[in-house]
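protien #1 (seq + structre)
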Amino acid sequence: MGAKYGGLPTREGVGPSCVSLPAGNWPTITDFLVQRFPDIPRAMWLERMAAGEVVDEFGEAVTPARAYRGHMRLYYYRTLPAETRIPFDEELLFQDDHLVVVDKPHFLPVTPSGHYLQETLLVRLKNRLGIAELSPIHRIDRETAGLVLFSVQAQERAAYQDLFRQREVSKGYEAIAPWRAELTFPRVCTSRIVEGQPFFRQAEVAGVANSETRIELLEVSGPLARYGLSPVTGKKHQLRVHMYALGLPIVNDRVYPPLEPTPEDDYRYPLQLLAQRIAFDDPFTGQRRQFSSKRRLELP
């Protein structure tokens, strides 16, 4: 693991970030970094270098005046301003030598991105369990609650991910959304989903379908209903897009239908979507693995 990160260890549950140096004629590596990351001031890079927190792939420290050389990787620690704690806790459901299964709360990202670093499920778990190689086998949206699986050993992750690619994993979600008497269930929704505008929204377009969701009606309460959603494929935002296309936007979805501008999180109104169950045959133990979320979406 040390060589992989140029000798920089995991720190507070977070491994160092990596940037590749392309061919170019920057006078120094510092000049390249300042241009490559315009939001990070030169003074911050100099502080990181002085602390020995910027190294090349061979473990050699990068100094402020070091001449630029392309076709090499650098490793450095990413820093963020103090993060506000997301006020919801994950629940550990299962752990052995191969798997960790967690019940994720709404609003908590699975992995670091954007302005989320420590306040992510992965980093929380690394700090809590002390497993440096822990890595997610799959992901669910930050706004979605429910089951997330992690691989304990880095070399085993690909075998678990193959189960998802080969559609050998049974997944079940629940959602609260409007009830429309004219729609019949169960039904299967298929469509072609591509990246829309802005980039974080997905859009349905004409063409060969690349997504499929089976939807059933579980319970009706006044104008709302509980739906069971079984994704056959795993496109980004697939369940939210398919429900919206049916005229059944999931309660508290801030993206489908689109709101301009997209509002900030309001913890009083979590997206009513839950990754409720998952089942598969473990490729290492041969056991049938079946897990269910302890969380519950409440119909008003």
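ok now protien #2
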Amino acid sequence: MTETRDQRFIDNIFVEMCDRLNQAGVPVSRGTLHFRILHPQWLGARILWLKGMQEADIQTFGYGVEDTAQYRNSPINELNSGAAVVRQHLEPGFGDAPSYPLYDELRAEGHTDYIAWPLKHTLGKHHIITFSSDRPGGFNDDDLRALADLLPAFALVSEIRLKNRLARTLLETYVGPHASEQILAGATTRGSGVTVGAAILICDLRDFTGISDMWPRDDVIELLNGYFDAMAEPIERHGGEILKFMGDGLLAIFPLSNANACRDLLSAIREAQAAMSALNEENLKKGHGALGYGVGVHVGDVMYGNIGSRSRLDFTVIGPAVNIASRLESLTKEIKRPVLLSRAFVEKAGCETQLENLGSHPLRGLGEPIDIFAF
């Protein structure tokens, strides 16, 4: 309880706990933790320790795993269905037992005993912890009492780490990894923020209003998700940070603290265009029209921080540079080019020879026209 304060990760605590159990004479040869997690891609995760491992193995499980035969025919399903404990001797001669495939795997690995309990957290939440032994005869009564006595303490220690991880995951999911770090570090005051140089990308889907009026709801959601995957994954892969999804649009920045930020943004756009082409091929096969989009790109200083009401904040960027990127995105509708970039960005990126110069164009709200480039 007291020596774990400086350890952030539950897998490291679990590894050390299993090692100390062996040092204390409790013959643990294998241990697992099974957690449900709030993640957009994963239903849960399993942490696996085997005797001799310095680090645990962590495996995630997608949504739908509970419908598989592997899960249904397992002691984990038995515990999730209400069992208070699952115990099985794995050596021959211990009577009839459920023929779970896991037991055959454990026997093949040399384990002689298996026990699993619910790991109870607050408000009725529970996860699962399991231990196996490789000692002939398995666990004795003293071993089982020692393991059972650890559960309440380990439940508290694991819940703290799991909740910390959930908070971080939820923030990363909804505001992005960099903003989440800022918020967790204490940037929660309205108006708090910093001025940073950034390449700014604003993207918008064309004719979304007409699509949403004519298409069934589920088709619209599927379309939006496919469009955002095509656009967002290259942005994040190349170091961009998506600050918000705005209906059918998105706002992302590539901080200039990375010397390659502008080149990374261009790479992200090229990959996003290829992904959109592939998506449109699939849409055409389904009888849907091709999706159009507009992208505006600029570079400059932005205020990066908290904006909003007293009780509801948005971690975002604002400033004239953001406005110019937005105006460029709107201009794509008029001049029928999907990606428009300002001269300031092109000069910063050093990519003028790779682009088409479209000349000077007025932007709404700006006094002077600016030079525009297109892919």
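The chain has a mean pLDDT of 91.
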